[in-house]
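Holo model, glutathione. Inputs:
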Amino acid sequence: MLKIYGSDLSAPSNKVRFTANYLGLQYEYVKVDLRSGDHMKPEYKKLHPANKVPSIDDDGFVLFESNAIIRYLADKKGSPLYPKGLKERGLVDQWIDFGSMHVGAALMKVVYNRIFAPLRGIPIDENSLKEGLSFLDRFLPVVDEQLSRHTYLVGENFTLADINLLALMDPCEPAQVDISKYKNLTRWRNALRKESFYTKCHPDYTHVLQSLQTPAKK
Ligand SMILES: N[C@@H](CCC(=O)N[C@@H](CS)C(=O)NCC(=O)O)C(=O)O
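Output:
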């Protein structure tokens, strides 16, 4: 059976579970406790050479990098989440890359400095935080504009590009990134967060962060 190795706190890991849920795949979710360093154990290195989550083991086939994994899972099912047509697929890839490399990367700087650095007692890098916020001011209007013209990122069909961005934007509230001024983005996000592929994972990311109040396992 498909095994998904991930952490509830990891947006890329949740992206893989959202996709598997949407596709109706049977899978075992193996939680990798990042706080107690499960991912640094030698046995985990067989699943990810850089000791990161997520990774999957599909009956002996190991794959890491969340965007590669979601494409693999959608293609395995022949799903329109990742359309086969040259141009349709090109547009899905375009918005996956834009979501990951621009929005996701900028938000990660904010998330790291506002959530994880304080939790770990690491000093906040004010320059990195400022840069993340300024990139979000540049890239979120692009997404909002796209969603003013279409129901989903690539038109009227829900695709992997939506799942990717939805997962990456999950930590907005605890990272105090207010997206309410982006009306179309907010409409898109609120609707998707009611879908069962999402609610099967969690009510929202804030609930997941609350789990940090419990001590890491020994
Ligand atoms: N580009 C990777 C990102 C993977 C990643 O950075 N995962 C983080 C959690 S979100 C991790 O495993 N961090 C632990 C570490 O780097 O030690 C993907 O999308 O799969």
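Residues 10, 12, 34, 39, 51-54, 65-67 surround glutathione (CB under 6 Å). The longest helix spans residues 86-120.
Archived with the compound record.
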